[in-house]
Automatic annotation (TrEMBL), chain A:
This is Extracellular solute-binding protein. Residues 1-31 form the signal peptide. Keywords: Signal. The keyword DNA damage does not apply. Belongs to the bacterial solute-binding protein 1 family. It is found in: Periplasm. It comes from the Bacteria. Pfam families: SBP_bac_8.
TrEMBL record, chain B:
The keyword Membrane applies. This is Sugar ABC transporter permease. InterPro entries: MetI-like, MetI-like_sf, UgpAE/MalFG_permease. GO terms for cellular component: plasma membrane.
UniProtKB/TrEMBL annotation, chain C:
It comes from the Bacteria. The keyword Transmembrane helix applies. Pfam families: BPD_transp_1. The chain crosses the membrane at residues 12-34, 71-100, 107-128, 140-160, 196-218, 238-263. It comes from Mangrovicoccus algicola. The keyword Transmembrane applies. One of its GO terms (cellular component) is plasma membrane. Residues 72-263 form the ABC transmembrane type-1 domain. This is Carbohydrate ABC transporter permease. Keywords: Cell membrane, Membrane, Transmembrane, Transmembrane helix, Transport. Belongs to the binding-protein-dependent transport system permease family. PROSITE patterns: ABC_TM1 (PS50928).
Amino acid sequence: MTKYSICLPALRRGAVSFGLGAGLLASAAAAEDLPVWHNYSYDGEIEVIKALMDRFEEAHPEVDLIRTQRSFDDLALTLRLAVSAGDGPVVTKVNQGAKDMGAMVAEDMLIPMDGYISEYGWDEQQSQSLMDRDRWSEDGQFGEGTTYGISSLAEVVGVYYNEAVLEEAGVALPLESFEDFLAALETLKGEGVTPMAMGMATGHLGLHLMAAVAQAHIDASHRAELDDLIYGRGGSWKTDANLKAAELMQTWSTEGYFFDGYQGIGGTDAVQLFVAGQAGFMTSGTWYFGDLQSNPDIHFMPMPAPEGVEQPMAVGGVDLAWAITSLAEDEATQDLAAEFINDMVSPAAAEVWAAGGYLPAAPLPEGSEVELSALLTEGIEAWTSLNAADAIGHYPDWSTPTMLTTIDDNMALLMAGRQSPEEYVDIIDADYQAYLAAK
Amino acid sequence: MKTSVLDGPPRRNLVFVLPGLILYCAFIFLPILSAVGLSFTSWNGLSAPRWVGLGNYIQLFGDARFFTALKNNAILMLFYCVLPLILGMGLASAVSAIRPRERLAVRTLLFMPYIMPSAVIGVVWQWLYNPAFGPINQGLKAIGLGVLAVPWLGDFNWALPAVGMVAVWYYFGFCMVIFLTGLQRLDPSIFEAARIDGAGPAYVFRRITFPLLLPEVRIVLLLTIIASIKSFDLIFTMTRGGPANATLVPNIYMYDLGFQLSRYGYGATVAIIGAILVFAVNYAVHRFLKPRDGA
Amino acid sequence: MTDASRIAARALGFRALVWGFTLMTIVPFGLLLLTSVKSKQDLFEGAFVLPDRIHWENYVTAWVDGHFSVYFWNSVLVVVPVVGVSVLLGLLTGFAFAFLSFPFKKTIFVVLTLGMMVPTEAFIIPLYYEMRWLGLLNTYAALILPQIAMSVPFATLFMASAMQQLPRDILEAALLDGAPRGLILRRVILPLMRPAISSLALFLFIWTWNEFLIPLVLVNDDSLRTMPLGMLFFQGRYTVNIPVLTAGAVLVILPIIVVYLIFQRKFIEGLTAGASK
């Protein structure tokens, strides 16, 4: 008995000093530490972001960047918890839209950036319609008001095609219209080639294909409806374009236009199979440029126009935005964070991204001698012409906090034939109307 | 409980209980109580929780996703508890019949999955099931069973059984080891006597082995039921509840509600109801598999 | 004669059955090992095809880029105190529940069982905010303290039921010698309990090593991540490269298999010792 009463306090003290020691270790950070979280997860992207951050540290020897890499889904999972706990990043990437950026703005977790935008002149490099995607008003209105972020990369969701595979199957290039695209799929299928690369187990390839098809059916002159819908000003998802896209997705799935067993294949694995020449087409974003340029047969173009559409919209915009969190408590830290972000969105950084094969949001500096990959040249071409026509569309999942899950879940049901296209569109619209009603 | 010769004055007895109890209360029981309190509120994790009374509970009983999750977990229990129990007991009986050295090797190998972190198991099986690169479908196609090569984790009908089979693989060796230990605990002379009396193996199993192994059955069920509730890890790494809720269980749903949608109050409600159901199942195991005093 | 051959045939059938299941259990591990030394190109050839040469560089990539040494030591630093302290606490509370009377015994028992039934997910949010309030987020303490607390109910139950099966006459004899209870617990009960303690330690080791949600939520600093968490975030980064991913998986499980084989011998020794007594 007595022996235990001696040993127990010792034990408790041990535990306390252990906790203290660990606590000290965790908080022993220097004043100039700048924790940065980002979502660049592919080998090519990681190389670029590492190079850019090394360069910043060289120019600012007193600053120590603490780099944390999170996948898209993991970032969404942990960012808000970490910031609210006070041990998250000062500078972070954050997904635009109601679920992430909108929620964080509502909770005062992000620092307004308008002052820095005019100070550094970021608005001279990126158009207002792109920067609208990072804006939230006082009363929680998306797409207007204060700016909370800025992006490094431009994004277009378009059609990748493998020229060698298409030519072998006898598909005539170029594809001029959406109908040509559909005909090419038929030809490929007839030749026993998988028409489209698809993997639904992880990632969001299905969402991108469906959104690309749906928005290609919207003429850029009617873009206001789409803008209103995404920015939460109202509208309906029950449109002919969405219905048509849902019908096509179901047909493609049930009639075997995708990889055998695509439901169980991960998104990145599907990309891998596409690189290996196992499918004719893949619809996804320009963020795969770095991975896809290893196969010179792979090319990129915007989703072509269906009959009756002059200038189709293309899903896209910018990548996740750089933002400053509320953990930047004093002005000096905020200024340093802004300086870092300025470095990330500068024309010089754009050059490094372009050299890595990625599509930068800022224009390359005058007289840049960066060697562009064939794929990137096509990407820049698409980006430039789409911007000129004001035809860059939106990611549908930005519209409500639950939309990403709603789309992913119900698309799987739609494609398994367990839901009709009408039912699918109704469910998406119901999610949206419920959000509007609750707002 | 019977008092023991070792008993002393209650106040001095408390010294033995308090250290563990205090730690437990601080980090487990207090959070559980807070979760119960939270289930009566609407809380986004930041601003002050808003009292909604039974609102969350009322909403829950009209929530189709919750019932899907419950049904899935009930099906999973079959794979977590029943199948490993049957397999484990069968194997333990069979293993007793082989040579001791072989027995040791078999036992060591069969127990191996159980020591693996479930995150690794999830990642590995996700790859095994992969329709494009995975060995399972390639193997099936190679032996002419290509029709069976379904997209396992992506298929609405197969995703849940596919996750379940991983659980069977994970736990049957563990069950076997527990039963084997139990068999060793038993006095061999009982079996000797039964054999001399001319009892068949089925009779011996039904009348002697199984009843005497009841303590082990009870502990196996207790542990595997808890494990089936902890199926979170496996499902989180393999399917995250997909496709479209086909492998959704209350824990994943609760996690989605909390961490994805910041609906901590409603998430807590799902947790509480889930915990009550687990409690009921475990109580039933306790009650109906009470071992007779003896041995 | 026919009887003997029938018994022999049945034994053979049992052996085949047992080894069949054993094979099923270890084939995934074999495939894992095989894939971990393949190149990405080899993978397209088929899962069962042997690579033309062994690609050890997958391991280097996983080890260097995957920070597995960091994860490994974190796991050790968490598991050792959790198992040690939990076993000790389990002995004390288990002893109390087996032999002693104290106020609210039944209530405390129910409260403890509750902790075994309620999944961690149910109280992870309050726990998260509690750790935040204590300033322990992102420390080893955040990984260790809740996991000790989580182990207390099982350790108690396990120890109490094992102690109840101890022969009473030995305890009574010891008490008649006039030994104090602490001494009896240490000198008489502890040695008898060795098999049970090693089983308990094995269970707690496995559970703590495998714990996924606590480090997922309470720690977001990569330098504090444990092995399973490292694996998860590793998967996020390397899904495109299955050979490197499988090499990472082997790196995670190899130390556990080694520890298991050492522990297993002790475990089995403990069991046989317990059985012979």
